[in-house]
Amino acid sequence: MTTHRFAPTGADDANGVAEMVAYLSGMLPKLEAPASPDAWHAIAECARREMLALLLAGHPAGLLEAPPTVEWQETIETGEGYRIRKLRYEGYPGLWAPALLYEPLEGEHLPAVLNAEGHHPAGNALPMKQVRCINLAKRGIVALSYEFLGMGQLGVANGHGRLSQLSACGVNGVGIFYLIMKRALDILLDLPRVDRSRVAMTGCSGGGWQTILLSSLDTRITAAAPVAGHSPLWQRIFHIEDIGDQEQLPPDLARFADFDVLTAMMAPRPCLLIYNHYDDCCFQSERTIESVYRRALPVYELLGCPDALRFHDCLFPRSHNYDQGNREQFYRFLAERWTLPAPASEIPSEDEALSEAEVAIVLPDDNATLLTLAREAVVRCRASRRLARARTLETRRARLAELLRLPALSLDALELGEAAEVDGCRLRHGLATLGPWTVPLLEVVPPDAGETAL
């Protein structure tokens, strides 16, 4: 028997990466400005519909429209012109999320901001997030801070790698992230003192990703300021540091709306894009000004509102941050758009930030996790498989081919050497107009080989 096994060398690995990038470059579309406003509105509405269907694939029906279930807990009277109200809400059936409401003591018809955060274990207790929410409250703005799944009180058992377990059961785990942030927005908009015409969202890193995703798909958000959290996939493949986490790259994302399209879908609503020039993590501004801002700007120009899209290039500090300089850009953005009299500079509030214990919310002991939700999905998946067994083999194969959408492949052996016990070879398959993709192998041939196994 002849046995073939994978044995890539350094050169083969480099060639493989180059071929992969070339393959993806031909697959990933870039946003092109449409011919007319009507054409763009049709594109945007179609993208919203298809993206929501993608995010909620495999989930029980009716979740998007269901009203949030909220339980209010302790109220903290700060004595600084605002109060903090603790709450928990059912972001997904069985999964309760903690949140903090920073509420000015005076005023009616107040503007509001939904505050997301990225991959920081402190979650809602993160000092720079608290300072931002306190500053908003002192400016007469209602601020709701909710937890990022996998961080803070929703950490540990909700590691992001568990999304793969849901995907294996036919459930798009990113839908859980989306519903948690969407429910938080529902709660904010239901507050009687909130002016629904002035509702913004902001967040850094993973919070920036949440901001552009929810704001582009839910037009109840009237202004957005994502910070260092997104760029289109066609740019990311050339910069591995920009790839992001599993939830930021759901399957089939670019098929419906890559992040350049999602950014343009904010139009004509105001959007402030904040990136860091010397970001030590990802999404440096020299890349994103081309792939995000300059791709979305023609859509804003087409709709007659180019000034509604702004780009801030943060030069200091040299880090992945939403520090004071970037926060002040956000305050100015809101003051300009909402005609607020508040100062542009940050109001010193660091000594008002509370400890993790002080801002902690009581959650159910049996709170659902991504793992328990995956186990529930397994039960549903097995039920589906029992139904599938009743189908003919041909129907099931056709359905699998439809789901995978694989191109027709032709396999050709290349660079085969003389007969020997161990020899190198490569297999190459052509992908229509996308070019070949090479797979390195080793060929092991015993003297009495009678057949070949791959």
General description of the model:
The protein is an alpha/beta fold. It contains 14 helices and 14 strands. The strands form 2 sheets. The protein has a 9-stranded mixed sheet, with helices on both faces. The chain has a 5-stranded mixed sheet with strand order 11-12-13-1-14, covered by helices on one side.
Which term fits the overall shape? globular
Query: Major sheet: size, sense and barrel closure?
Result: 9 strands, mixed
The percent range for helix content is 25-40%
Oligomeric category: single chain
Order of strands in the sheet with most strands: 2-3-4-6-5-7-8-9-10
- Low-pLDDT sequence parts: 1-7, 413-420, 429-434
Q: Between the first and last Cα atoms, what is the distance in angstroms?
A: 10 Å
Structure in a nutshell:
This protein is α/β, with parallel strands linked by helices and 454 residues long.
Defining traits:
single chain, 454 residues, alpha/beta, 9-stranded mixed beta sheet, 5-stranded mixed beta sheet, 14 helices, 14 strands, globular, disordered N terminus
What is the topology?
Layout: E1 2-5, H1 10-27, H2 37-55, E2 70-77, E3 82-92, E4 95-104, E5 110-115, H3 127-138, E6 142-146, H4 163-167, H5 174-190, E7 194-204, H6 206-217, E8 223-227, H7 233-236, H8 253-256, H9 259-264, E9 271-276, H10 285-302, E10 309-314, H11 324-338, H12 356-359, H13 370-388, H14 393-404, E11 410-414, E12 422-430, E13 436-444, E14 452-453
Parallel strand pairs: 1-14, 5-6, 5-7, 7-8, 8-9, 9-10
Antiparallel strand pairs: 1-13, 2-3, 3-4, 4-6, 11-12, 12-13
